[in-house]
Amino acid sequence: TSFSTPKKKKRDDGMREHVTGCARSEGYYKIDKKDKLKYLNNSRAFAEEPPADTQVRTHPPLTDRRRSEQRRLLSSFTGSCDSDLLKFNQLKFRKKKLKFCKSHIHDWGLFAMEPIAADEMVIEYVGQNIRQVIADMREKRYEDEGIGSSYMFRVDHDTIIDATKCGNFARFINHSCNPNCYAKVITVESQKKIVIYSKQHINVNEEITYDYKFPIEDVKIPCLCGSENCRGTLN
Domains along the chain? Predict the structure, then answer.
């Protein structure tokens, strides 16, 4: 029952001759190593040969020193808005390593898990953008629900970011009268965002704090930051 299949012949132009007259009915052809090497050598030589009317320019690889020089030049040429946008894009792709745990200031706090240099973006304050009218309604509703703390951050006169039920680790940052960070409003793609910047070098396991800058009110909120120049109240 076993019979040998006729050996496929090659034509003069190098193409195989189909015995059955149809390439699909004969399955796959096994290519010899000589044919493979011949094809690869021809394709490699064609790829390495540049066109005659073009000039190829090679650039030396960037060293760490050249990279730092380019970053320094970029920061000097770009303005504050452009540098903020550049830092924000870097923050999106390479987030700082942070953790939240119990704080000696108040309840929960945010701590650094890696050294953070001065004037670096630490984290974005994420939440829902709402208007002042909605913020007043939610504040009353949070009090009725027994939520002791509301995490609302004012962006401008009309916009407030509410991170009480929809936010990230930034809502755990505690207030301090002598903080190591500060909050800044930047504009990214015509949308205002709140970003926490570092004022100074922050060590590992150091708590991240900033000044809430609450407006002055008659009913005072006690401050528990414990710093030397503590004002005693948040407002």
Answer: 82-125+167-234 (2.170.270.10)
